[in-house]
Amino acid sequence: MTGPHHTPRVSEREARQVAEAARQQDWHKPSFAKELFLGRFRLDLIHPHPLPPAEDVQRGEEFLAKLRDFCETKIDGALIEREARIPDAVIDGLKELGALGMKIDTRYGGLGLTQVYYNKALALVGSVSPAVGALLSAHQSIGVPQPLKLFGTPEQKEAFLPRLARTDISAFLLTEPDVGSDPARLATTAVPDGDEYVLDGVKLWTTNGVVADLLVVMARVPKSEGHPGGITAFVVEAASEGVTVENRNAFMGLRGLENGVTRFHRVRVPATHRIGPEGAGLKIALTTLNTGRLSLPAMCAGAGKWCLRIAREWSAVREQWGRPVARHEAVGTKISFIAATAFALEAILDLSSQLADEDRNDIRIEAALAKLYGSEMAWLMADELVQIRGGRGYETADSLAARGERAVPAEQLLRDLRINRIFEGSTEIMHLLIAREAVDAHLAVAGDLIDPDKTLGDKAKAGAQATAFYARWLPRLVAGRGQLPTAYADFHPKGHPDLAQHLRYVERTSRRLARSTFYAMSRWQGRMETKQAFLGRIVDIGAELFAMSASCVRAELLRTNGDHGRAAYELADTFCRQSRLRVEELFGRLWDNTDDLDRKVVDNVLAGRYTWLEEGIIDPSGDGPWIADATPGPSTRENVHRPIR
């Protein structure tokens, strides 16, 4: 049965089952963040801070130097903002530079950069034009290269990666007009026909889709004889007959983003272009995002650095009441927040990226936390920068320049950063995704106890397993190194702020967090998954603890390398003190909140009880349905696809 947009109707339980089946179920490698949520502070997994090999550093720095020159001389961010388009010459220049192949192995013509240097490159490009950064990121982090690297056949890699490294732009197509973060309702189909599949459907918000040459498309294969079916990933030539880019979307920010609506009508795709087996599409997408998500916090970290620079320069020259505004405490606290948080975001990014390069640890939670924390904190930093700049922060760069002042695009940054809290998993979805991984150990031993479909025998077996697990686990949450005054003493070198105290706090708080999670599971059991506000706070606490840990480890790395060590310790100390205040507030809100009352208000809002409150205004919205019709069929729109050749 389908809805008005031919979207499959599925129950809440069916949707959860699809999402659960796509999860990477096993943990074959250690994870610092997973252990953190379980009350085990495994500092040994991240300290000493891992470092890249010298040859990777040399190759990365050489490319960054070329990229910096290109950004300074060839990319006009203000022009891209005004014209809402990246000039073809800029994209051609990036191709010649090899920027399309930063993460592609050298054997296929790519640069073979590490995740660390790929992220540094994105931060650099994103600082001059977030739209260009988004183009490069969507191409390599979630577009065709990454899933092929992880799941492609040798033949697919040979056929596509050389093109993607130098000439062809790629895009990732999952979202549909009526399908966002609930892939169980995916409506695009891929029907087997001999040695081919026939694709039909509509994809929305296809970043790079307007200019792409190659697409990764997620489509549902019907189950039939010889075909297990399920959501499946395909590489599709964008120039194929039946592929139409029906609209180039425009947004609040990222005005140069080549994002569109793409329709597939009887598009024939060779079976050899299928990535992985049928039914593996969502697992491929999620696995791709494990490291792909690090590109977004890379640009957030770059934005934080720019916020700090502008705040420093402006606040030193702008005077009010006889002194620079930076000397007024109300502004100074904002500058301190920006400086400390910029340090923390880079610490999280570099640590997570280096862990990804080494491949010693499972970083699926670390990458998700980096995305969540980076997008939220970068937005706050940009908002504070606008406030520090006052009316000039709200004024456009072009307007500032027109009246003779420095063209500082603070308001543009705020608009550009806003999407990061939605892109590649909204904050709300990231909370749920991370929370699911955080409670995985509990569900592994006690999940059958709260599953209504399990038999009494299954529940009895699960009860025995849970009893044995918690008998070992719970006593370990009572005491730990965080209670020893001398623990982590190497993080308190002479003449430096005391970071050891913060690591002791992280250790103690990690155990407290695990106890809170256990109490919640004991209290709500099967209803735990409905307590999304509670789970969001649990995840936010874990994110702060991860950020504190990364900041301390980075400060110690810089100290031992003789690279701004004392200053790094100062920033890490300030960040940890600010973070601890946020953590304590979050703990207070775990049990003292308005969640139950909020649910009642929501019920009343949806029932129309408060419509009287909406009186006295005029709705400026235009006509049209809330969700566009996505009925399969031939396109009736002009094809606005414009590949860059």
Automatic annotation (TrEMBL):
Residues 279-437 form the Acyl-CoA dehydrogenase/oxidase C-terminal domain. Gene3D superfamilies: Acyl-CoA dehydrogenase/oxidase, N-terminal domain (1.10.540.10), Butyryl-CoA Dehydrogenase, subunit A, domain 2 (2.40.110.10), Butyryl-CoA Dehydrogenase, subunit A, domain 3 (1.20.140.10). It comes from the Bacteria. Keywords: FAD, Flavoprotein, Oxidoreductase. It catalyses: a 2,3-saturated acyl-CoA + A = a 2,3-dehydroacyl-CoA + AH2. The keyword Cell division does not apply. GO terms for biological process: fatty acid beta-oxidation using acyl-CoA dehydrogenase. Belongs to the acyl-CoA dehydrogenase family. This is Acyl-CoA dehydrogenase.
